[in-house]
Amino acid sequence: MRRAGQQASARPRPSHSEQQYSFLLGSLIDAATLERADAEARRCGVGLHDILLAAGWISEADYAAAVAGRLGVPLVSW
Predict the structure, then answer these.
(1) What share of the chain is helix, strand, coil (3-state, %, to 5)?
(2) pLDDT higher at 62 or 78
């Protein structure tokens, strides 16, 4: 709810899930896909990454590389 004199924002504040997965934006997915996955994850009661992977929107290898990059650790693969 807005207070008197407060302007409405053009886009609602990102959800916690969207903030948590924002490191995927641009390189792997766009904002619309992230929002769609977030809505589906909430509906199904699963993690947002589960939806991204199950829907094939990102590959496991790309997701692992992005997480490693976000954490600043090397990617170890089999």
Answers:
(1) 55, 5, 45
(2) 62
